Amino acid sequence: MLASSNALKSSAMYIGYLILKEIQKRDTEKVSIYDVSKALKKAGYSCSRLLYSQSVLNYCYAMYLLMYRQGIGEKERESLLSKWITMAMITGHYQSGGESTVQKDYANAQEEGFASYLAQIEELKLTDEFYNNILPEKFTSTTARTAPFLAYVATQCARGVHSLYSDVTIEELYKNKTESYQILPKAYLAKCGYKTREIYGQVANLTYISKETKDIIRKKSPVDYKENLEKAIGIEKIRTSLKENGLAETIFTANETDVIQILDDRRRQMASEIRDFYKTL
């Protein structure tokens, strides 16, 4: 059934299946999806919700198996795959081509070696222009399930970032399916004259907060909840938390003339954090 389907023959799952069969014939060591999971967790993808589709996991599994066949060691496989998934998520590597992209990747990585092929993609796609302009622009999206934003959340999970104004980590909240929270609330932005979803709903305006924090700040603007927050956790903790979450203290003094700049600064900060994190993988 599998071999007779032309669609499946060209798929990442089938490519991975063929590689795995060859590996199992050649040596006794087994490669499993759990090995791939370790590499994905290194990049921050500690739960399936952070991957926007099952296909992405299938593609990564095929690439991991290819690296194994090429004799790349376990630690290097983890490093390369964690870079690969991050690259794919922030650039939209699979979103337009799908299976045809997988076939091209497989052919090129097989011919040139996986590490060399990834280095070529990095040089082509992960440029200063990409990190300074293209990636920040992706954070204007109003869809929290967009791949670049999921990649940003993944980097926060990998780095153990604490949620805004709390000791609870972003990873813990995301795993528990906590709803995102608007840093500059919709009602506040409406008062400032920004009533479109393109402003209040963009992912640069989203974060995750604990229930305890939500009880303090509710849906108030930063300037309105600042006093109660200072009483609850103190000024220094607020400053530390803002910095950890890529936000400036200007959110407490923002008016209608500051909103666009605050969101622009956050988008650039998000891109910068991903860039710095990528270098550590």
What report would you give on this structure?
Mean pLDDT is 88; it is low at 1-10. Helix 4 packs parallel to helix 6. A two-stranded antiparallel ribbon has the order 1-2. The protein has 16 helices and 2 strands. The protein is an all-alpha fold and 281 residues long.
Descriptors:
single chain; mainly alpha; 64% helix
Short description:
By secondary structure, the protein is mainly α. It is built from 16 helices and 2 strands. A two-stranded antiparallel ribbon has the order 1-2.
Lateral strand order in the biggest sheet? 1-2
Terminal CA distance: 39 Å
Mean pLDDT: 88
* Percent helix: 55-70%
> What global shape is seen?
elongated
Low-confidence stretches: 1-10
Number of strands: 2
Protein structure class: mainly alpha
The largest sheet is: 2 strands, antiparallel
- In percent, how much strand structure appears in the residues? under 5%
Number of helices: 16
Report Rg. Answer: 21 Å
Along the chain, the helix and strand elements come as HHHHHHHHHHEHHEHHHH
Give the SSE layout.
Elements: H1 6-9, H2 12-26, H3 33-42, H4 54-69, H5 74-91, H6 99-112, H7 114-125, H8 128-138, H9 147-159, H10 170-175, E1 181-182, H11 186-191, H12 197-200, E2 206-207, H13 211-217, H14 222-233, H15 235-244, H16 259-280
Antiparallel strand pairs: 1-2
